[in-house]
Every structure is written in structure tokens, then in C-alpha cells.
Amino acid sequence: MKFxxxxxxxxxxxxMREKGVYGADxxxxxxxxxxxxxxxxxxxxxFFQSDLxxxxxxxxxxxxxxxDGIVLNAGAFTHYSYAIRDAIAGISVPVVEVHMSNVHAxxxxxxxxxxxxxxxxxxxxxxxxxxxxxxxxxWL
Length: 140
Ligand code: DQA
Known about the structure:
Blueprint: E1 2-7, H1 19-22, H2 27-40, E2 44-49, H3 53-62, E3 69-73, H4 82-89, E4 95-99, E5 121-124, H5 129-136
Parallel strand pairs: 1-2, 1-3, 3-4, 4-5
Helix pairs in contact: 3-4
This protein binds 1,3,4-trihydroxy-5-OXO-cyclohexanecarboxylic acid.
The site of 1,3,4-trihydroxy-5-OXO-cyclohexanecarboxylic acid has 10 residues, from loops.
């Protein structure tokens, strides 16, 4: 199987911003670990990060017929992007929503995701392991 790990706004600064919340590992090092993990299980993975909502929508739309699954941490877009929601609803590729932090234990505006309803499932609160668990869900 072939997967896409998609990260949204501000996630390119993982390891540099709010380390107490998101950890000290950079997105690059997290992605390296994920690439090894996916490869060890006989699958393929691509990575993409953008701070731009439209770029994420384009990437989601292009995933049709290319990927077997998408792991998406949309960052703050999670809480208000109807555009990303519509992009997900418009493809048949299953999307697993991911958050490193436990958004339900944080500010109220983070409790609502406009994406979950159109995703296959959601994994949150396990730091970088949220990405591993989400990927694993596709082949377990
Ligand atoms: C996040 C949670 C979001 O609320 C926040 O805006 C992020 C990261 C997470 O991984 O915990 O940027 O998606």
C-alpha cells in the first residue's frame, strides 16, 4: 500500500514551537522515523507539509487513485477549514485525522474538528506516536 502523510499549518515548526505540547522532534525527524516504519512493513509513504489551506486541498484532491490512505494533521485548520473538509469528502481515499496533543484537554476551540465527520477515524494525544498508530491502522 501507498500512503500520504499530510501536515498542515505550523507543523513545519514542530520541534521548535511549544515543545512542551508537541515534543522536541522536528517534523523532518518524525517523518524519517515514519518512513522507516512504513518501509519495514512493506509499504510506501510520501510526505507533504504546507501552511497554505489551498495547497492542502489540492494535495488531497490529487490523492485519488494514487494513495491507499492519508494520515492528516491539519493543525489549526482542523477547527475551521470547510475547504479541507470538502476536499476530503470529495475523494474515496480513506483519511485518518491525527493530532499529537490531546485537543480535548486543551482550549475549547480545539474541541471541535470540522474534519472528523468525513474521516475514517481519528487518533490524538500520543505525540508523534499518533502518526505511527494512524498509519498502522491501515494494515492491522
Ligand atoms: C494539533 C492540534 C491543533 O489544535 C493545533 O492547532 C496544532 C497541532 C496537534 O497535533 O495536536 O497545530 O493538530
